[in-house]
Design a protein that fits this description.
five-stranded parallel sheet, alpha/beta, eight-stranded mixed sheet
């Protein structure tokens, strides 16, 4: 499954804001992702950036005048609207949103929005006082009621020197929303997928805990891939430093018991559970209420008790179960044992002793084994790509269950 942006026709409207320079980065990343990008500039935006800035990135003409006889849009005013899979306006000024709310169509940007039947993503940017003005808020509400998606603005220091709400959202946020919208009709549409991520923490005393090296990268990469294929995606996350993918929902937990409760709750109406988290097998039998003092001691004995096996306790008859086997030896044998002991539909096994894969790495090398014992060994690839390979099999299993 490729990036949902790949091969798509995307129209980007740029209006007159100091944030215009961020549109250059956005358009560059859309082109890098494989999209064909048409840029439409308002008259005011020409005061901040030149059409050549965008034309050199897209290798396509930039539309600035609705009546230019040498322009495609001058000949056919709705040409971009007809071929675009999504229209993004970034930055969208108060002026531009007011004109859109009134249904104006006197420049390439407004004409395209009025004529398109594709999704429209609006990213406001303006001074904080302008954003909070009742007229602007009324226009935003009108646009939202028409079905347009509006993201931002963010709070921060503005061009005027004021601090407030009005900054254009970051490029990564716009791309995340774009992928979420473009992938909404994917093969996992109307499916709810719960994904665990990170490494749980088990308290010893008020300042110490037992944990592991899991970064959460694998779980978050799977979540991003699931979102891009149209799934309702929930991440049950133990402590980690990952950024939540746009369009997903996160439930933060700490201990294995916390994770179990959250997963059981979310799995009531879920279709798939993917346990990518490194859940502690053991926890201290007793947690000290006060910090442990050395007091001359040379050793510290901690009694441990077993944590619940979350995945084993879920019923495969009610939810598709995918597990992970992070092993340092006898990889396949241990993975197959887990399929049986946890009653799994699919397991992803990897060798954590190898350098450059697994914990904290952006890449991984895994072997997929299904319930029937069919083995698929994958090459070294990004965790996002691995997420899609796992979801390919998940999609196939779900299809077979519906037959």
């Amino acid at each position: 499954m490729t990036d949902p942006i790949y091969g798509k026709s995307i129209a980007v409207g740029v209006s007159g804001s100091i944030a215009c320079y961020k549109a250059i980065d956005l358009i560059s990343k859309l082109v890098q992702a494989g999209a064909a990008v048409d840029v439409m500039m308002t008259k005011a935006s020409l005061q901040f950036v030149t059409p050549n800035s965008f034309a050199s990135i897209t290798n396509r003409p930039v539309s600035t005048n609705l009546f230019d006889p040498n322009s495609e849009i001058g000949i056919n005013h709705v040409s971009i609207a007809e071929r675009s899979d999504i229209v993004i306006i970034a930055p969208a000024t108060a002026q531009t949103m007011a004109r859109l709310a009134l249904g104006f169509s006197d420049d390439p940007l407004t004409a395209t929005v009025l004529a398109t039947s594709s999704p429209v993503l609006i990213c406001p940017a303006m001074d904080g006082n302008m954003y909070s003005n009742p007229a602007t808020q009324e226009n935003i509400n009108k646009l939202a009621k028409r079905g347009y998606t509006i993201i931002g603005p963010e709070e921060g220091r503005l061009a005027s020197g004021l601090f407030g709400k009005g900054r254009l959202v970051e490029t990564s946020t716009i791309l995340g929303h774009t992928r979420s919208i473009m992938g909404s009709d994917g093969d996992l549409k109307n499916k709810k997928i719960v994904i665990s991520a990170g490494g749980t923490q088990e308290k010893i005393d008020p300042v110490r805990f037992i944990t592991n090296r899991s970064s959460g990268k694998m779980g978050y990469a799977i979540a991003e891939a699931a979102r891009n294929r149209g799934a309702e995606t929930i991440i049950v996350a133990a402590p980690n430093m990952q950024i939540t993918p746009v369009g997903t929902r996160v439930k933060n937990v700490i201990s294995a018991e916390d994770m179990k409760n959250a997963i059981v709750d979310e799995c009531i109406d879920a279709d798939v559970i993917i346990m990518a988290a490194a859940v502690a097998d053991w926890k201290p039998k007793f947690v000290s209420k006060s910090k442990f003092k050395k007091n001359g001691s040379q050793t510290w004995d901690i009694n441990l008790s077993r944590n619940p096996d979350i995945l084993a306790e879920l019923d495969r008859n009610t939810i598709l179960k995918v597990g992970f086997a992070a092993e340092s030896e006898n990889i396949l044998d241990n993975a197959i044992k887990k399929i049986r002991s946890k009653d799994l539909d699919l397991i992803a096994a990897n060798n954590i002793s190898k350098e450059g894969i697994g914990f904290n790495s952006d890449n991984n090398k895994i072997t997929l084994i299904n319930r029937e014992g069919v083995v698929q060994e994958l090459e070294l690839m990004s965790k996002y790509e691995i997420g899609n390979r796992i979801l390919d099999q998940v999609s196939d299993i779900l299809s077979d269950r519906q037959k």
